[in-house]
Specification:
It is built from eleven helices and nine strands. By secondary structure, the chain is α/β, with parallel strands linked by helices. The N terminus is likely disordered. The structure holds zinc ion.
Amino acid sequence: MDSPVLRKLNVNAQINESNTISELADFMIQRHNSVVITGAGISSGSGIPTYRDDSGTWTSNRPIQHAEFMRTHSVRQRYWARSFSGWPTIEKAEPNLAHVELASLEALNFVGQLVTQNVDRLHQRANHKRVIDLHGRLDQVLCMDCGALIARSDIQDWLKQHNPHLHESSNLTRPDGDADVDDGLVKAVQVPSCRRCSGVLKPNVVFYGSSVEKDIVESIYQKILRSDSLFVVGSSLMVYSSYRFCKFAAENNIPIVCINQGLTRADDLLTLKVSKPCAESLQALSAML
Ligand SMILES: [Zn+2]
């Protein structure tokens, strides 16, 4: 049974102010199969910046577009130059308390499948077992012609060898490993290609303008249908690829709860929302369960 507070919120279906952690704990204590969706807000504590500020506004340059990357050599030069600079920050990042607390909620059976928009693999490194990388993973590079998968660290070595003018940097501004690099340096960049077939190499992530495979989306819908709630952590849900799961849950009368500091696209669909940082909120939640 939901608490009176939750019944009231369900009726209003509007979040005007932040709920408390104890209200969230009241909700979670009755759930044992919650699907979790996480976003950049959960990795910010690991030194990986978020795309957007609390109002959902872009905080840096326009992201790489899939079609432009595939079509234009100079776009690939820019991507690999910036990625070369930013990759070490991603590679060295460690899971933070938010990843660890979510993994412990999984171990205690409060949450089931986790779906992350992050490409940094930090949930897996925190020992979270059931993780779907909705937007792919940055530690792999994919040949767009023959499908070969190559370790990103091998590509970093290749880039280093063939582009001595580039430097690794700690100046990371975006969660996809894209860092700022001088335009002059970008023009001289040697771009890696597939050793097997000379095809175009792309990080194994879903760029803007591309889409998540249908099978993956469908499997997540099925998991949501079998769940007792949707739990959003650290995402503004501004991209449709994650927002659609909230829409789907709402259409199927599955309650949605959220920890996110700032606006989300699904605010009017939420049963309950805690507007506080992820790590401290999850730690407080765990302590109450
Ligand atoms: Zn190939």
